[in-house]
């Protein structure tokens, strides 16, 4: 039972669809996962596979009016977020679940100082004198290793470098001590040496606070560096999920296998990279059976006819692939 | 003029590019210079891939612009096929432009949305070569097939293609005038992971077939290791280390190269290295640090590093470094 109570967030069969004039776009189509306290779950996939929409669904920030969460459950410590009113959601966003976006330039308001923006975020949680609030803002900056925070809180975003701005975004996200942090490609816009500093900072904060992190990325390197568990998404569904070493050592879905094989390695010289032919399908007209079947080298008739069930391979490692079926 | 067999395709000697920083609208007083590229030298052989790595603002892109003759160097010389490219004018310049092509990072902004693929690919031929219409058309069809597209797709517009296909169109356009050198400025970083391998493999294949040289600019070290024969590492406008890709990756010498490698993301959770974690950020190229430019962040900095500039030393037949440690 111990492990059960550790689960901070549980998502069951989440479906987010977009209703457009041309048809229904199934951006998220039956996604289930959970995250435990102090754990980092990586959601990996290519652009358009639904990873960002999954994250936005968790915060109920799906673009309206075309987008709608049509099915599923999002249980934050046992409470279903899909049953909450909009007012209740407002007190959850930023306070219990916060999010860091890819581009710090667009997530900060260029017209306000960062101290101002930090105080706004802190004001959600704390109602204190303005002197105390200023001190809290300085502390928040300090916690993300910004040098000379007393001076920095008077800066505008344009006066800071990209890495520094992303730290400020991190400080805002962490200001109300949330249970879960959703990081949507937070380091893609940063340089390598700055990226490493940022990833280490997130790890450090996590070790100190027991924060659960959902890390959305397309980069298996970030996964290897950061995550405890990985969920691989393809065309709106999680096709494989498991502990990070399991996924790297025994990728079981052909897509995961191909994706890992197609990334050039820093540690060794390769003559020829494996490449996946074709492109991901449009989410509008999804193929009948397995969505990867048209690009899959191992595909058989059954794959195009019917979506595979989820097979369990070892400890908490699952894959949606007919190859796992004994009758294959 | 006899070109010796040993003369490389591209020879860059002591190249410098300073951008003037001015203050005031009318008088434009010069308040300083951004030393974007400061005294770099390298060579590229025919049919070779030369990789340039470094963080943003280190001068990689300025170097490529100088080679493309979009910018004029402050000092130094670029020789292609033994000829100084600054001396080119008129017909010679057009000739030079057919010799050197470019593929940029983002195929969404580098292809004109109002032109058909046929015209995009044909543009370098029409502008720089006097070819008959029929010849242009047949060449367009030919290169489109070479990059793995169908010649029937020539009538489509760029928006009808996916990212990987657009980058193939950009490659086709660069390849059309049969250049000797193509500058690849982050050619795959805007593409999806599963598409990157396709484009990288295509580039390698084309190089083998047509013996074209590449100047590859990238920040992803694994990409450079896969593609490049020789690699140079840039920091704040200077080349701090260059050499054979294999020897550079197996045995990085300069502390900055080492730091870059340990900051690069591992390909497996058991391969996390991080022996060196750099503090701080890249200083401004407007006022670069004295002595060795890296000394402010270097974990091995000695006293003389802040006062003297380390000379570039050859440590191996094809591996050199600018650092007092060697």
Explain what the structure shows:
The complex is a heterodimer of chains A (328) and B (326). Chain A is α/β, with parallel strands linked by helices. Helix content of chain A is 33%, strand content 24%. Chain A folds into two domains: 2-96 and 178-276, P-loop containing nucleotide triphosphate hydrolases (Rossmann fold), CATH 3.40.50.300; 106-177, no CATH class. Chain A has helices spanning 2-6, 51-58, 86-92, 104-107, 114-123, 130-143, 149-152, 162-174, 192-209, 220-226, 244-249, 254-261, 301-305; strands at residues 7-20, 23-36, 40-44, 67-76, 79-80, 97-100, 180-184, 212-217, 229-234, 237-243, 310-312, 318-320. An eight-stranded mixed sheet of chain A has the order 6-7-8-3-9-10-12-11, with helices on both faces. In chain A, strands 2-1-4-5 form a four-stranded antiparallel sheet. Chain A is globular, with a radius of gyration of 21 Å. The mean pLDDT of chain A is 91. The mean pLDDT of chain B is 90. Chain B has helices at residues 60-67, 90-99, 117-128, 133-146, 163-175, 193-210, 221-227, 245-250, 255-263, and strands spanning 10-23, 29-44, 49-53, 75-80, 83-84, 100-103, 181-185, 213-218, 230-235, 238-244, 312-316, 319-322. The two termini of chain B are 40 Å apart. Helix content of chain B is 30%, strand content 25%. In chain B, strand 1 (10-23) and strand 2 (29-44) form a beta hairpin. Chain B has a domain at 88-228: P-loop containing nucleotide triphosphate hydrolases (Rossmann fold, 3-Layer(aba) Sandwich), CATH 3.40.50.300. The chains are: A alpha/beta (328), B alpha/beta (326). Chain A binds chain B through residues 46-47, 161, 163-164, 191-197, 200, 218-222, 224-225, 244-245, 248, 258-259, 262-267, 269-270, 272-277, 279-280, and chain B through 55-56, 162, 164, 192-198, 200-201, 204, 219, 221-223, 225-226, 246, 249, 259-272, 274, 277-279, 281-282.
């Amino acid at each position: 039972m111990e492990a059960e109570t550790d689960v901070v967030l549980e998502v069951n069969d989440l479906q987010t669809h977009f209703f457009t004039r041309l048809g229904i776009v199934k951006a998220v189509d039956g996604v289930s996962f959970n995250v435990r306290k102090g754990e980092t779950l990586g959601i990996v996939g290519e652009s358009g596979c639904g990873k960002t929409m999954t994250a936005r669904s968790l915060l109920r920030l799906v673009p309206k009016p075309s987008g709608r969460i049509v099915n599923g459950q999002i249980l934050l410590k046992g409470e279903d977020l899909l049953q909450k009113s909009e007012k209740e959601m407002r007190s959850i966003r930023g306070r219990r679940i916060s999010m860091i976006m890819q581009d710090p330039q667009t997530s900060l308001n260029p017209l306000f100082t960062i101290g101002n923006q930090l105080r706004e975020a802190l004001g959600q949680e704390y109602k204190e004198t303005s002197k105390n609030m200023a001190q809290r803002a300085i502390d928040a900056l300090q916690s993300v290793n910004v040098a000379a925070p007393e001076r920095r809180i008077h800066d505008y975003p344009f006066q800071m470098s990209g890495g520094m701005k992303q730290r400020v975004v991190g400080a805002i996200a962490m200001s109300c001590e949330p249970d879960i942090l959703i990081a949507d490609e937070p380091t893609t816009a940063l340089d390598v040496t700055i990226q490493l500093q940022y990833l280490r900072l997130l790890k450090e904060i996590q070790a100190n606070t027991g924060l659960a992190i959902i890390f959305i990325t397309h980069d298996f390197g970030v996964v290897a560096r950061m995550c405890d568990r990985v969920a691989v998404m393809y065309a709106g569904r999680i096709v494989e999920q498991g502990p990070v070493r399991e996924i790297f050592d025994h990728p079981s879905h052909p897509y995961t296998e191909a994706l890992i094989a197609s990334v050039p390695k820093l540690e060794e010289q390769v003559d020829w990279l494996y490449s996946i032919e074709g492109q991901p399908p449009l989410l509008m007209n999804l193929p009948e059976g397995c969505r990867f079947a048209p690009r899959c080298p191992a595909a058989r008739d059954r794959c195009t006819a019917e979506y595979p069930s989820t097979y369990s391979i070892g400890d908490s490692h699952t894959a949606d692939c007919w190859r796992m079926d004994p009758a294959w | 003029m006899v070109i010796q067999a040993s003369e490389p395709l591209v020879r860059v000697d002591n190249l410098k590019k300073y951008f003037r920083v001015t203050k005031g609208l009318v008088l434009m007083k010069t308040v300083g210079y951004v030393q974007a590229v400061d005294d770099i030298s390298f060579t590229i052989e025919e049919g070779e891939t030369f990789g340039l790595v470094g963080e943003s603002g280190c001068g990689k892109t300025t170097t490529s612009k100088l080679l493309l003759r979009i910018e004029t160097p402050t000092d130094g010389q670029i020789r292609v096929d033994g000829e100084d490219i600054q001396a080119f004018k008129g017909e010679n310049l057009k000739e030079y432009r057919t010799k050197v092509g470019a593929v940029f990072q983002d195929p969404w902004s580098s292809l004109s949305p109002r032109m058909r693929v046929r015209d995009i690919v044909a543009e370098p031929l029409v502008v720089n070569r006097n070819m008959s219409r029929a010849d242009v058309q047949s060449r367009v069809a030919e290169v489109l097939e070479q990059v793995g597209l169908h010649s029937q797709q020539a009538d489509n517009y760029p928006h009808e293609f996916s990212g990987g296909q657009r980058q193939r169109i950009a490659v086709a356009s660069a390849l059309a005038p049969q250049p000797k050198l193509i500058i690849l400025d982050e050619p795959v970083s805007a593409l999806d992971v599963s598409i990157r391998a396709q484009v990288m493999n295509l580039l390698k294949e084309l190089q083998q077939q047509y013996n074209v040289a590449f100047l590859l600019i990238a920040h992803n070290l694994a990409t450079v290791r896969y593609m490049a024969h020789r690699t140079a590492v840039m920091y704040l406008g200077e080349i701090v280390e260059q050499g054979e890709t294999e020897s550079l990756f197996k045995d990085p010498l300069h502390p900055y190269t080492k730091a870059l490698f340990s900051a690069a993301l591992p390909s497996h959770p058991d391969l996390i290295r991080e022996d060196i974690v750099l503090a701080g950020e890249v200083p401004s190229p407007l006022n670069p640090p004295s002595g060795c430019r890296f000394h402010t962040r270097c974990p091995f900095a000695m006293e003389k590093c802040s006062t003297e500039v380390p000379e570039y030393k050859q440590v191996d037949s094809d591996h050199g470094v600018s650092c007092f440690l060697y």
